[in-house]
Amino acid sequence: MYEVKLIYDPEPYSTTLKESITYCATVELFLRGIHTSQLSASRIAFESDKDRILALLILSASTSFTPVCI
Question: Residue 43, Cα to own-chain centre: how many angstroms?
Answer without folding.
Answer: 6
